[in-house]
Amino acid sequence: MTTLLLVRHGVTDANRGGVLAGWSPGVHLADTGREQAAALAARLAGVPVAAIVSSPLDRCVETAEALAAGRDVAVETDDALGECRYGEWTGQELKKLAKDPLWKVVQAHPSAATFPGGEALRDTQARAVDAVRRINERLGPDATWIAVSHGDVIKSVLADALGLHLDLFQRIQVDPCSLSVVRYTPMRPFVVRMNDVGGAVDDLRPPAKKSRSRRPSSDAIVGGGAGAK
Q1: For residue 75, what is the enclosing H or E element?
Q2: 63/200 Cα distance (integer angstroms)
Q3: Please, what is the Cα angle at 148 between 50 and 71, to 5 degrees?
Q4: Which residue, 4, 40, 51, is CA-closest to 161?
Q5: Residues in a beta bridge with 77
Q6: For the residues of 202-228, what is the DSSP string, one character each?
Q7: Is this model's pTM higher than 0.90 or not?
Q8: 51 with 120: CB under 8 angstroms?
Q9: How many percent of the chain have pLDDT more than 70?
Q10: How far is CA 198 from CA 121, 184, 201, in A?
Q11: Torsion (CA) 2, 23, 8, 69 in degrees, nearest 10
Q12: Spatial distance between the Cα atoms of 107 and 88, rounded to a whole number of angstroms
């Protein structure tokens, strides 16, 4: 069972300014974004990870480096986890884009949306999901790893894990520096968390190895199982 920790990058000035940053270079974390990344790193400090893979964009790499601090794990980058390529929409204000007829398609029928001079959202989802499964295979079934990416990319991966059509992915919310967790098994993925922005993460630690000679407690016998009353 491979466990994927999906992390959106922290807040940037582009987020605050209502600008669609896309693949624009030089978009860095704001002070708040750096604080968010440090806080999440502290929350996850007790969770061992086999890899940290990031979108190559600055805001994600900076978030990933904060998560890697104090760990013997180097940050890798993968273009397949990069932001959707918005083409001519890149760098424009969201309030202006909201008046474009394509905006309604993106919101209500995203599987039909192709950005002018950019890529289709369905292609963004395909490359991101393929990357997740490729890295899962490389790391193996016992691994826990972190992917640092972007809102639309993470929403598309979560939609796939939930068995939702891409046209429903706008119903999923992914805030800056939020944590979402998916466990992949040979049969199906299990979505453990979505848009988590605080609280304990003890359940993400590997389970303690049980001694073979240890007998189950009466509480475990009475309280668990399908036949418990």
Answers
A1: strand 75-77
A2: 20
A3: 40
A4: 4
A5: 54
A6: GGGSPPPPPPTTPPPPHHHHHHSSTT-
A7: no
A8: no
A9: 91
A10: 29, 23, 9
A11: 80
A12: 18
Asked if residues 205 and 46 have their Cβ atoms less than 8 Å apart, the reply is: yes
Task: With cut-offs at 50, 70 and 90, classify the pLDDT of residue 226.
Answer: very low
pLDDT in tens, 9-59: 999 999 989 999 999 999 999 999 999 999 999 999 999 999 999 999 999
Which residue pairs, CB below 8 angstroms and at least 24 apart, start in 195-203? 198/43, 199/43, 200/43, 201/43, 201/44, 201/46, 201/47, 202/46
3-state helix, strand, coil in the chain (%, to 5): 40, 15, 40
The candidate with the shortest Cα–Cα distance to 109, out of 62, 169, 57, is 169
Q: What are the residue boundaries of the structural domains of the chain, listed by start? A: 2-223
Distance CA 149, CA 160 (A): 16
Q: What is the mean pLDDT of residues 67-78?
A: 97
> Selecting from 3.40.50.620, 3.40.50.1240, 3.40.1700.10, 3.40.630.30, what CATH number does the domain 2-223 have?
3.40.50.1240
Place of tokens 């119903």: 171
- Lowest-pLDDT choice from 69-73, 88-92, 200-204, 210-214: 210-214
Beta bridge mates, 29: 12
